[in-house]
Each structure stands twice: as C-alpha cells, then as structure tokens.
Amino acid sequence: MPERINNEVQILTTLYKYPNTSRSDLSQKLRLNKSSISEYTNRLLESSLIRENGTGDSTTKGGRKPICLEINYQYGLCLGIDIAPHKISYALCDLELNLIDYGEHEVEIDKNNVLQVASEIIDAQLSQSHDYQGGLLGITFAIHGIVDKKKIRFTPNYDIYKFDLYHAVSSRYPSIPIHLINESNASALCEAYNSHVRNLVVVNVGSGLGAGIIVEGNLIQGVNGYAGEIGHVIIVPDGIPCNCGNHGCFEQYCSEGAILSYYNSIADTPIKSIEELILEYQQGNSCAEKTIQRDLKYMALLMNHIMKTMAPEIIIINSELAYRINNYTQMLTEMTRTTYKQNIEIIPSIFHHRSVLLGAVYLAIQEFLHNYD
Description:
Blueprint: H1 3-17, E1 21-22, H2 23-30, H3 34-46, E2 50-55, E3 67-71, E4 77-83, E5 87-94, E6 99-106, H4 114-129, E7 136-143, E8 146-148, E9 151-154, H5 165-172, E10 178-182, H6 183-195, E11 200-205, E12 209-215, E13 218-219, H7 251-254, H8 256-266, H9 274-282, H10 286-310, E14 314-318, H11 320-324, H12 328-340, E15 345-348, H13 354-370
Parallel strand pairs: 4-7, 7-10, 11-14, 14-15
Antiparallel strand pairs: 1-3, 2-3, 4-5, 5-6, 8-9, 11-12, 12-13
Helix pairs in contact: 1-3, 2-3, 6-13, 8-10, 9-10, 10-12
C-alpha cells in the first residue's frame, strides 16, 4: 500500500475509534509531523470522508482552540444480510451504525434460491444509497455455518455451502466490496463494539448453536474459520444423530429444534415454535418447565466448557429463551455457579438477533476504512 494511502487509512481508522480528534492529537497518536497530517486531512476533507466538527479545548499555554475532526458518517451506507436456513433479514446503516432500513422475510433458503433472494434485497437497497456520495460501500453476508474468508465451507442446516455465493454476488455487483462472516462472529463484533469489553463470548442459539469469540479485542476465527463451532462439540457419546455427521453434539440438546423435539416427546399436545413453548412455560405447564430445566442443565455445561477453555469476562446469550423468560440468564448463572463452581456474568443480548446484522454492517464499515483508496 502506498505511504499516502496507508497514512490516510490510519487517520480514518483513528478517527472512527476516537471521534472529535484534533490534527495535533492525530499527529501525536500516529507519530506523523503536523504538516503531513494537514496534507492528508485536507485530502480527506476534500473527498468528504471526514469533516470538521467544532473546536476542542485549548492547551494550558492558551492560544487558539484546535479544530476537531470526525468521520463523515453520512458519506455512504453499508448493508448486512443475515442468511438463516428459514429466514433472510437485512440492515442498511450509515457509517455510525444508524439504521436506515431493515427488513426480514420468512423463506426456505437453499443453494438454488439464495442468489435471487439476496439480489432482490441488494437491488432495493442500492436505490436508497443513491442519495449518498459514496453510495453503497460494502455488503456483508452473515452465514449460519463455517466461513473461511471468501468461502462457505459447511452449513449443517442448509445446503448453501454447495453454492459459491461470494463469487456469484461479486460478479453481479463488481463495484461493491463483498464480505462473508459466520453469524456468531458477526454478533461478537457487534457486542464488542458496543460494550468495549476486550474478552467476551457470544452464544447464538437458533436452528443451530455457535459462538463468537473476542480475545484482547480481536475476533478469533481459527484455522479455516472453525473456531467457535461449539454446537458440534460432542457431549453425549453415541447420542442423538447430528446434521454434521456425528452423534451427541451440543446442537442436538440446546438448539431450538432440539428443545422443541424434547418437549414434544413428553407432552400430549405438540407445539411448533419456541414462542409456544415460552407461553406454556409462563402458564405453568409442567412439560414446559421440565424442558426449560433440561435446557438449562445442558447450557450450564456449555458455559463451563467456555469458561474452562476461553475464560471470558462475560458471556452474552442470543436466544428467544434468554430474551423472553425474565430470569433465564439468572437461572443459568446460578446453575453454572452451583454445579461447576464458575463465577461468570451471563446476560442476554440487548440487540437480540439484530446483533448479527449490526456486526455484519460493522465488518463492512471496517473493511471500507481499512481498504480506502
């Protein structure tokens, strides 16, 4: 990367992390002389990527107050698309993660329709981005499976890994940077950005079960993107068959489908959704109470695994049970403490499942800033 571009990238990423920073402060943070900082910031001001935003405090020696700089958050938009097995959702945001548009569609996603369904969303959002100077700056797809940079390696609960989504979308929209990320990793990026916690784990519970891991502020993806695949850790040898090909995986005991399957195996009247289960639980249904207690038992075991291997400051749960049963995470914390002697803060996400979309957008923003030319 040419020196000028590299320095301008450093200025952009610094201003994104530290808004309202003066040229003098930039000079100190980046160890560049003031004349170079002025040259680079003037170029960025001319391009409208940054803007002046009032004045800061004068120094102890007095003199004129410095003019502060910040990212022009309305320069362009970024799009996050969450492709789940039974639903596709999207969020369009400016560079400050302010939501411009949001939507979701119930649809069975497979290798044959994923490009068409995604393209319909992109085409609609492209029209909204025309009023912004930078237009649509990037698109990130959150995938419910193993993602390795530009490749979807495996999706156990649907077959889109058999389709080259990255190259198909890149070919259709050659001027827009395209990114892929595992959905739990996207959630972890969102939660870390919001909380400023440098060591955390996000557990996403839906049709599958996965974790996003942040260590010392960095997302851990592992070799070929396999880090965080906790749903396919075997906890019951020769247990319930799993879509991954093994038996006894966590996913077969703690995912939404597994929870419903267990309830329907002990109840007289079957149900079809987690929402129904929660309602039955709130009404005192003994089968629902037994189901929730069983789920908490296995989830506490999962919390113990996470604590023993990663020792995060906090574990954040994304699940309908955590959102809608008031004391779910408190019960889970207590069970983890009493059974495994682990003291850890376990909380539900304040973003609910939108943390996936916001994390996907955040990745697109960061890629834009780091690859600015």
